[in-house]
UniProtKB/TrEMBL annotation:
Domain Cell envelope-related transcriptional attenuator as annotated: residue spans: 124-281
Bias (Low complexity): 370-391
Domain of life of the source: Bacteria
Record's protein name: LytR family transcriptional regulator
Length: 519
C-alpha cells in the first residue's frame, strides 16, 4: 500500500517547485510554453492576430449598431407608390436624385430658435435642394428652391394615420410637408420638375451645428462686417471660419445678404456648401475612416431619411460616390424665379427659363457646359420627307417665299436664333415679330404653301402633327411656343446660359445688405 503522504512520481524537489510556480520542469513559464511542434513566435503572432480580428469585428459591430440606431426614417412618397414593375435606382451605379431638406422644427435641441407655434405639423422645409449625382460620378448638380416659391401641391396622404389632404394651388413650397410629411415635399418637387426623386435626407438646426464642429469649421466670406439680430449672425469683413451657432446663423440669415430676400440666402447657402465640399476634398475626409465615423455619428443623430436609404451601408455608398468628384463639376443652381403677380413678397417660376432648366436636368446634361444639347425626343415623327417612291413636289424659289416667325416663346431675343436657321437655308425674305406666348410650337400655312411649310418644319425637326393649314395665313408662319425656348432642334433639351450660380471650386464672397452692415 502507498503511504497517505507519498508523493507521485516526478514531483520531487525540482519538479514540485516548478509546479508550484506554474513552470515546466525546464523552468519555462507554462503560459509561454509553445505547443509541441509550433515555434513560440508563431503562437504569439497567431494570438495577436486573433485578438486584433476579434477587436476589429467588435469595433465594426459597435459602430454599425450605433449608427443604425441613430437613423430615423419616413416614407419617400405621400401619394401613389411607384409602379411595382418599375426598377428602383441602384445606389452604387445609377444616376441618383436626392432631395435635401432642412427642417424648421423647434422641439428638443431646436427650441432656442423659436416656439413650437413657429412650426406646425411636420414643420416647414427651411432649406430645399435637389442633389443630382451622375451615373459615372463625374458630375453633381445642386438645385435650390426658394422657400417663398408658389407651387401646386398634389394630393398627399400622411402614411402614419392614412389621413388624406386635397391638392392645393399657389402654396409656398416650404409648406408642402407640413400636413402629410416629407413624402409630400418629394411629390411636390417631382410634379414641379418632371423628375423622379430616388431618396431624401432631412436634417434639423442641430445637425448643421454639430456637423460644422465635427469637421473643424467652414470658411466663409462677407463683403462687409455684418450683424443680423434675427439669425444672430455677426462676422467681420472678409474670411471667417464658422462652426456651431455661427455656421447655423450664416445658413439661416434671410436679410443680411443681397437685397434681403430668399435668393440672397440661397447664394449664401451655396457658398457655404461649396466651401464645405472643398474642405472635405482637400483634407481627404471622405477617405479617412476615423473622420468618417465621427461625421457619420453626428449626421445620423440628426437625420431623417427614406426607407431605401435607412441603412449605414447605403449612406456610406453615397459618401463613397462623392469622394472623387472634381469640384469644378459640382454645380450650384437656383430655380429661375421672379416676383409673383399675386403677391410681390412671393416668387413664381420664370418661363420658359424654368422649363428649360428642368428639361436639361431630365436629359442629364452637364449644367457647367452652357449650350450643351441632348438628342431630340423621339416621341413623334418629324415632317415627312420625299423618298424614291414618293412624288417630289415642284421646286420653288426659297428666296421669295413669305415666311414669318411669330415669337411666342416668352424670350424676347428668341426669334434671332430661329431666323438664323431660315436665312442660312435660303429663306432670305423671312421676317419676325413678337407674339402672345403659347405652349406649343406650330407651323401654319396658307393655301398652296404646304410644301414650304413641310420644309420649314423639317429644318427644326417639328413633328408633322404640328404642321397645320390655316387659310388666314399668307404663306408660312412658324409660331414658336414656350416648348421651343432654346436651341434649333425642336424637342432637344439644352443648358441655358448663366444658369450656374457657382461651382464648388469657386470661393465667393457674399454681398452684405447695406442695412445689416455692422457699424
Amino acid at each position: 500500500m502507498r503511504r497517505r503522504d507519498a508523493r507521485p512520481e516526478g514531483t520531487g524537489t525540482a519538479g514540485s517547485v516548478a509546479a508550484r510556480h506554474g513552470e515546466a520542469a525546464d523552468g519555462t513559464p507554462r503560459h509561454m510554453k509553445a505547443p509541441k511542434g509550433l515555434p513560440l513566435w508563431l503562437k504569439i503572432v497567431t494570438g495577436v492576430l486573433s485578438l486584433t480580428l476579434v477587436a476589429g469585428v467588435a469595433f465594426a459591430a459597435f459602430w454599425f449598431i450605433r449608427l443604425q440606431n441613430n437613423i430615423t426614417k419616413a416614407p419617400l412618397s405621400a401619394g401613389e407608390t411607384r409602379d411595382s414593375g418599375e426598377a428602383l435606382a441602384n445606389d452604387k451605379s445609377d444616376r441618383l436624385q436626392i432631395l435635401i431638406l432642412g427642417s424648421d422644427t423647434r422641439d428638443g435641441k431646436n427650441a432656442d430658435y423659436g416656439s413650437t407655434e413657429d412650426s406646425t405639423g411636420y414643420g416647414h422645409s427651411d432649406v430645399m435642394m435637389l442633389l443630382d449625382i451622375s451615373a459615372d460620378n463625374k458630375r453633381v448638380s445642386v438645385m435650390s428652391f426658394p422657400r417663398d416659391l408658389l407651387v401646386d401641391v398634389p394630393q398627399c396622404t400622411d402614411r402614419t394615420n392614412n389621413q388624406t389632404f386635397p391638392a392645393r394651388s399657389g402654396v409656398m413650397i416650404n409648406e408642402a410637408m407640413a400636413e402629410a410629411g416629407i413624402g409630400c415635399a418629394v411629390d411636390t418637387v417631382n410634379k414641379l420638375t418632371g423628375l423622379e426623386i430616388d431618396h431624401f435626407m432631412m436634417a434639423d438646426f442641430n445637425a448643421v451645428k454639430e456637423l460644422s464642429k465635427a469637421i473643424g469649421g467652414v470658411n466663409v466670406c462677407v463683403s462687409d462686417p455684418v450683424f443680423d439680430p434675427d439669425s444672430r449672425l455677426r462676422l467681420p469683413k472678409g474670411d471667417s471660419m464658422v462652426e456651431g451657432e455661427q455656421a447655423l446663423a450664416f445658413l439661416r440669415t434671410r436679410h443680411a445678404f443681397g437685397d434681403g430676400g430668399d435668393l440672397g440666402r440661397i447664394k449664401g447657402q451655396q457658398a457655404f456648401l461649396s466651401s464645405l465640399t472643398r474642405k472635405l476634398k482637400d483634407e481627404g475626409t471622405l477617405g479617412n475612416p476615423q473622420r468618417l465615423l465621427q461625421i457619420a455619428d453626428v449626421v445620423t443623430q440628426n437625420l431623417t431619411v427614406d426607407e431605401g436609404l435607412a441603412s449605414v451601408p447605403s449612406l456610406l455608398t453615397i459618401g463613397g460616390r462623392l469622394k472623387d468628384i472634381d469640384v469644378s463639376k459640382v454645380a450650384f443652381v437656383a430655380v429661375p424665379t421672379q416676383a409673383a403677380a399675386v403677391d410681390p413678397n412671393r416668387l413664381e417660376l420664370i418661363e420658359p427659363q424654368a422649363s428649360q432648366l428642368f428639361a436639361a436636368l431630365r436629359a442629364d446634361l452637364d449644367l457647367t457646359n452652357p449650350g450643351a444639347t441632348s438628342s431630340p425626343a423621339a416621341t413623334e415623327s418629324p415632317a415627312p420627307q420625299p423618298t424614291a417612291t414618293t412624288p417630289v413636289a415642284p421646286a420653288y424659289n426659297k428666296a421669295i417665299q413669305p415666311v414669318a416667325v411669330a415669337n411666342g416663346s416668352g424670350v424676347a431675343t428668341r426669334a434671332q436664333e430661329i431666323m438664323a436657321v431660315l436665312t442660312g437655308n435660303g429663306f432670305t425674305q423671312a421676317v419676325s415679330y413678337l407674339a402672345n406666348p403659347v405652349d406649343q410650337t406650330v407651323v401654319y400655312y396658307g393655301t398652296g404653301f404646304a410644301d414650304v411649310a413641310a420644309d420649314v418644319a423639317t429644318l427644326y425637326g417639328i413633328p408633322a402633327a404640328q404642321v397645320q393649314e390655316a387659310p388666314g395665313v399668307a404663306g408660312v408662319q412658324l409660331y414658336v411656343g414656350t416648348d421651343f425656348g432654346t436651341g434649333t432642334a425642336y424637342g432637344a433639351a439644352s443648358v441655358p446660359s448663366d444658369v450656374v450660380n457657382q461651382t464648388a471650386s469657386d470661393a465667393v464672397c457674399q454681398q452684405v445688405n447695406p442695412l445689416y452692415i455692422d457699424q
